[in-house]
Amino acid sequence: MENIITANQTLARVNALANGNEQSLKQTSITKVGVDLGTSSIVLVVVDEDDQPLFAAFENANVVRDGLVVNYIEALQKTTKLKKLAESTLGIPLTCASGAIPPGTIGNNKKVVGNIIEGSGMELVSIVDEPTAAATVLNIQEGAVIDIGGGTTGISIFKDGEVVFSADEATGGTQMTLVLSGYLGVPTEEGEQIKRDKSKQEETFPILIPVVEKMASIVTSFLTAYGKPVQHIYLVGGATDFPQFASTFSKILGRPVIQPDFPQFVTPLGIAMISKQEELGAERRCI
Length: 287
Ligand SMILES: Nc1ncnc2c1ncn2[C@@H]1O[C@H](COP(=O)(O)OP(=O)(O)OP(=O)(O)O)[C@@H](O)[C@H]1O
Ligand SMILES: [Mg+2]
Description:
By secondary structure, the protein is an alpha+beta fold. The protein is 42% helix and 24% strand.
């Protein structure tokens, strides 16, 4: 699968930048910026005109619940902090950015996400659908994107590059943390650390299997509700970041699933890739 190989190379670079394992270089040219306001973190990614990652950073944050921004002030402060860090690292001003919202979000959430981006000092280019951002990274036109983030298990089915079906249900990485913390008898903050500790995943994953199986059965019911054949199934979102996640999931589903590396960075990278470019020069604007 050539699309996944390319996506994995780019995602590895985003991961290295976000975790400080690789350094960003000073820039003089055009950039595209994506801001992902998630349930558990805010991620800012900057790519160049060829979609190569230049900068990535995240802030853990509890500013979004059920896909809606619930803490505007904190979201604004953390987005502004990330933007300033990107500017000082890259040595250029960031003037334009895009954001994303979960599929089917209603009300004025779109406006709120836009206000946070504009409040942080960037012109809003567009607000995209989260799964569309993920599909851009994976370079897919057909198939289902399963996104398991902090709070939800969501599905978006694509046909000819368009979302034709989407649904989500409230089981995500937070439920995994609660189950693990309860089992180990530790506070949830500690449970979250233990869950993310790669060196402990062999012991922790078996405890989490029932939650993963529940997520897979949620997806099975979504696929039944859609009722038509789906070519490939892709798995993204931070909660899926376990080596055994995809195989456990696919056993319940009864079919293979494709999982890119660093699944927590797929959506934020895609938002940056979709965003329009900003031109540096006497007159800075989004083009
Ligand atoms: N290394 C890791 N191992 C296991 N789980 C992880 C890891 N990193 C992040 N997670 C989990 O991933 C979840 C967040 O995933 P992601 O960043 O995709 O969600 P989000 O965009 O913040 O939330 P949502 O999409 O639900 O709004 C959290 O529950 C977090 O605990
Ligand atoms: Mg997300």
